[in-house]
Specification:
- This is CBK1 kinase activator protein MOB2.
- It comes from Clavispora lusitaniae (Candida lusitaniae).
- InterPro entries: MOB_kinase_act_fam, MOB_kinase_act_sf.
- One of its GO terms (molecular function) is kinase activity.
- By secondary structure, this protein is an alpha+beta fold.
- About 35% of the residues lie in helices and about 5% in strands.
- It has one domain: MOB kinase activator (Butyryl-CoA Dehydrogenase, subunit A, domain 3), CATH 1.20.140.30.
- The chain contains eight helices and five strands, in the order ββααααβββαααα.
- Strands 1, 2, 3, 4 and 5 form a five-stranded mixed beta sheet that branches.
- A hairpin with a 4-residue loop joins strand 3 (about 165) and strand 4 (about 170-175).
């Protein structure tokens, strides 16, 4: 299995067709004894933070309060994402007690691919900037959607009543009245994944037809998408990494995350402060040379 299978930017036409957006066999698939592939889960999305009672609160705006169906997600036009304020940071997640499982050896050093992803995420010569960024965002979203499908049945409202990334980071959602509220993690993630799906299927945001120009706010939309994807990464690392270990998927997951962060660093998609819940892990990967 080659990581280069994810990069289809070479030897293709300048503009993508709808066929290019059909889901392919993704490289981050399970090779564990269960013989179960990564299951796809359809799911929703938005953004902005505050700090309460020593806990970091990130507020996201919601286009709807109920999880939409697959058909509505593909057809409904998403609302624009509000600009985030800069979040406060807190390292208590890693210093209050013993380190989380994903920071312990051998798991923190487990990877599917040796070396960094620098050359994989760099813009190839003669490839359009917007084309390259949209391709990578689309494919990373597809991988994240499938990974979430693996553990989604365990993300219940009873077990995870809030969308947290450790004991000191909590992501809030703005309802239609503008009030910041706590949502169960499953509902928050469903909103985020559905919103991203709507974005990448919106021709005015991610044009796929020949001659279609990328809009002026295209990079901003990619940053909002990357920020919300990071929050799902953070939630899974802090709450469900043990399940990935049980399925022997920790190497796939770590390499996928390193790939994602490498893209974010290369194109400045996420502010470092937003990465606070996973900064120690990112720094560890940087020391290992997985992220440059």
């Amino acid at each position: 299995m080659s990581f280069l299978n994810t990069i289809r930017g070479f030897g293709r036409s300048t503009k993508k067709t709808k066929k290019d957006y059909e889901p392919q066999s993704l490289p981050y698939t399970s090779t564990n004894g269960s013989t179960s592939p990564l299951r796809r889960s359809q799911s929703p999305s938005k953004i902005s933070p505050s700090k309460q009672n020593g806990q970091i609160q990130f507020v996201s705006s919601s286009p709807t309060r109920h999880s939409p169906t697959r058909r509505s997600r593909m057809n409904n036009r998403p609302r624009s994402v509000q600009r985030d304020s800069i979040p406060s940071t807190d390292d208590k997640d890693f210093s209050d007690s013993s380190p989380p499982l994903f920071m312990c050896e051998p798991f923190v050093k487990t990877a599917l691919v040796k070396g960094s992803f620098k050359t994989i995420v760099q813009l190839p010569k003669y490839v359009d900037y917007g084309e390259w960024l949209s391709l990578n965002v689309f494919e990373l979203y597809g991988h994240l959607n499938q990974f979430y499908g693996v553990i989604s049945e365990y993300v219940t409202p009873e077990q995870y009543p809030t969308m947290n990334a450790g004991p000191n980071t909590n992501y809030l959602w703005k309802d239609n009245t503008g009030q910041a509220i706590n949502l169960p993690a499953c509902q928050y993630i469903e909103y985020v994944l559905t919103w991203i799906s709507n974005k990448i299927n919106d021709q005015s945001v991610f044009p796929t037809k020949t001659g279609g120009a990328f809009p002026p706010n295209f990079v901003k939309d990619c940053k909002n998408i990357a920020r919300q994807m990071f929050r799902i990464f953070a939630h899974i690392y802090h709450n469900h990494f043990d399940k990935l270990v049980h399925l022997s998927l920790e190497a796939h997951w770590n390499s996928f995350f390193a790939h994602f962060i490498s893209l974010c660093k290369e194109f400045s998609l996420i502010d470092r402060k937003e990465m606070a819940p996973l900064v120690p892990l990112i720094e560890n990967f940087e020391q290992q040379g997985k992220i440059i």
